[in-house]
Amino acid sequence: MFEFKDIYLNEYFTIAGPLEKEYGVKNCDIYLDDYYFGEKSTENAEIKMQRTVLNNLITSNTELIIGGDLTNQPTAFGSASLGRKIPSIGLYSACATTISSILTLSSFIINKTIKEGVFVTSSHNLAAEKQFRFPVEYGAPKPIRSTFTATAAVGIKISNKPSNIKIKGGTLGKVVDSFVKDAHNMGAVMAKGAAETFIDYLSQTNTTIKDYDLILTGDLGKVGADIFKEILKIEHNIKVNNHIDAGAVFYKNLEYSGASGTAAQALLLVTKFIHIKKYKKILCLGTGSLHSPLLVNQKNTIPTVTHALYLEVEK
Amino acid sequence: MNKKEYLELVKKLTPKEEKLKNTFLAFLMGGTLGFIAEAIKLLLVYKICITTKEATTWVLIIFIFLASLFTGLGFFDKLVMKFKAGLIVPITGFAHSVTSSALDYKEDGLITGLGGYLFRLAGCVLLYGIIAAFFLAILKVIIYV
Questions:
Q1: pLDDT (0 to 100) of residue B95
Q2: In angstroms, rounded to a whole number, what is the distance separating the alpha carbons of residues B91 and A169?
Q3: Which CATH class is domain A165-313?
Q4: Average per-residue pLDDT in chain A?
Q5: What is the pTM of this model?
Q6: What angle do the packed helices B19-47 and B52-73 form, to 10 degrees?
Q7: Fold match flag (A8-159 vs A165-313)
Q8: Maximum Cα interatomic distance, chain B, rounded to a whole number of Å
Q9: In which element (H, E) is residue A309 found?
Q10: Disruptive mutation site among A36, A137, A190 for chain B (greatest number of B CBs within 10 Å)
């Protein structure tokens, strides 16, 4: 468990894709008109998205870049940090990468190894589809339970310089077997890990659900959010009223379960909850499904991990 | 929560697919395609006066061409997602899978990209199609000889 003091979220920069714009994601710095961002391939577009975010956040005080994405061997992150003369670490915990990166960065700052660092992540619908599922233009029927990778890039600057948003603590989750083999049902894969980390965090910090104004889960989608709440109700007798799932609120009228992708939770967190400042105590649960096509094809169950991050947003 | 309990909970809360609606849409689309194909074939046979065998080949070429063209234009995948098996099972599905793979890997090199991945989805159709044809041919020989 982490307890941080004097660590602040100073600045952020966001890029959202065409579908996100269409479905009303507000307050982004850049909206893309198409999936290519002036590049020849979707992978290069994702690299350019991360690079643009970093260009807008990095200053001469930046001492470390941490980030990750969904591409194989975090390609987008590696190429986006190229040539910057700043140490960089790529992390991968699938869609929980946002939370694990922010926790890692905060740990470096609390240990006084660095004073200021930048976190960056992205997900690109077409690049992810190509890698995890089918070719982009192939109309593989998607079941209702499946989620849709969001196209976005988000960067956050964290330092010891005071601001309205305090990073107070968090915990790193354990990898849990979801018992699910169905790669379409990502919500069911991640809900189990989300519930376990949430309960762990409550017991570690000696708090209850009422101590938080908002529980923001990553990308469980509608299906996963229902399962998450049901587990808490059946197993722990906890009634959840202050919960929002980032995945479930994207693309409201699309017939799928919601959005997924490393950037989905980060995008909603900064453009909505940090922007409107309605909720003070926010517990973010970054939910990651550690699956790969190889694991699924060889009929293994899918492991999942959820990391927790506690923020306080002052008005 | 043990494995069985969790999987039961997942099953309970996961929305079911509308199988009846999907089947009906697929049937409708597949039937329509068959109808159009037959119409084109008859048109070719009676108006351009070619043999039925030649006309069938032309129908296939037209369907493959249109499916590939529409995939390239970017709206065929939306139709396939709607009508599912109605467009995947006919020859249009095969053309669609090859063209969409080609579009995906066109930037990854002629050998390592396009060459290696062109039949990423259609490869299994070819492989099992050829194996099935082999055994059916043997069966035909046994029955008719």
A1: 94
A2: 57
A3: alpha beta
A4: 94
A5: 0.91
A6: 130
A7: yes
A8: 71
A9: strand A303-313
A10: A137
CA distance A130 to chain B (A): 7
Q: What pLDDT is attached to residue A251?
A: 82
- Distance CA(A96)–CA(A198), nearest Å, equals 14
In chain B, where the domains are located: 24-144
Rounded Cα gap, residues B90 and B95, in angstroms: 9
ipTM here: 0.88
Domain ranges in chain A?
Answer: 8-159, 165-313
Give the fold, CATH level 3, of A8-159.
Peroxisomal Thiolase; Chain A, domain 1 (3.40.47)
| Of A215-219, B50-54, B81-85, the least confident | B81-85
| Residue-wise pLDDT tens digits, A233-275 | 999 999 999 999 999 988 877 778 999 999 999 999 999 999 9
Q: Using CA coordinates, name the residue in chain B closest to A143.
A: B17
- In sign, the C-alpha dihedral spanning A306, A209, A212, A270 is positive
> What pLDDT band is residue A132 in, cutting at 50, 70 and 90?
confident
Verify whether the Cβ–Cβ distance B121 to A138 is below 8 Å: yes
* Whether residue B59 has pLDDT greater than 80: yes
The minimum CA-CA distance between B143 and chain A, rounded to whole Å, is: 39
Could you tell me where the beta strands, DSSP code E, fall in A78-138?
Answer: 88-90, 116-123
Residue written as token pair 């200021």: A116
Choose the closest CB to A134 out of B72, B107, B121.
Answer: B121
Chain B, 2 to 41: residues with Cβ < 8 Å from chain A are 3, 6-7, 9-10, 13-15, 17, 22
Residue A141 has pLDDT above 90, yes or no: no
- Chain B: residue whose CA lies nearest to A188: B10
Place of tokens 């006919």: B90
